[in-house]
Amino acid sequence: MDTSLNKYISETGFCSRREADNYIDQGRVTINGREAIKGNRVGENDVVHVDGEPLKKKKAPVYLMLNKPKGVTCTTDQKDKSNIIDFVNFKTRIFPIGRLDKRSEGLIFLTNDGDIVNKILRAGNNHEKEYIVSVDKPIDIDFVNRMRNGVRILGTVTQKCFVKQEGPKRFRIILTQGLNRQIRRMCEALGYEVEALQRIRIMNINLTGLKSGHWRYFTPAEMEIVNAMVANSSKTAGVDGMDE
Length: 244
Description:
Elements: E1 3-4, H1 5-11, H2 17-25, E2 29-31, E3 34-35, E4 41-42, E5 48-50, E6 53-54, E7 63-68, H3 84-88, E8 95-97, E9 105-111, H4 114-121, E10 129-135, H5 141-149, E11 152-153, E12 156-157, E13 162-167, E14 170-175, H6 182-189, E15 194-202, E16 205-206, E17 215-217, H7 220-230
Parallel strand pairs: 9-15
Antiparallel strand pairs: 1-4, 2-3, 2-5, 5-6, 7-9, 7-17, 8-9, 10-14, 10-15, 11-12, 13-14, 15-16
């Protein structure tokens, strides 16, 4: 039984489906020696190469969480010297679930399990991401209310969300969307610049006890809860992503 090329690549643990599409677009993937295109299907006897190297069979699943420091880029492309893969330096191939902007810090998951990536990122599943954000000038109740009730960015209005002021220039926000650079764009639309942004929680997992630049494995209890939360993940909705 054949499968879509991007799914096939992600299921080997090489990268996510989204990044697989990027590799395909860049002409870096071949099937049986011929350059691949999006929409190609792969059968069990086909041979797939990325950058001239054959894809290896999927290894045992790995699930990590990292407290990403500023300056690390959430990409598997090792041509980018600040890439997250070299930073973590794990013994086998892993890739990030979603993204955090290079200037941002905080919690991000990494895995070799392409299936769970798509379930967590699937649009409409309402998985919470919590952030602490500092901006360049004092905020007030008007700013908080406007952030809560939706801001026009990227040709749409953001979903209503939880926002709480934490200091003169600091607020907490909980998102279930994952639009590209969402918090930064929301602030810019209201005339503010983000000076610091930290993701402190994804779903039921928080940063407690995890120092900046350090990573750890998910505990069995955490994996059990995450699997339960994604068990009913919609297979038809689009992918929002998990940006800040």
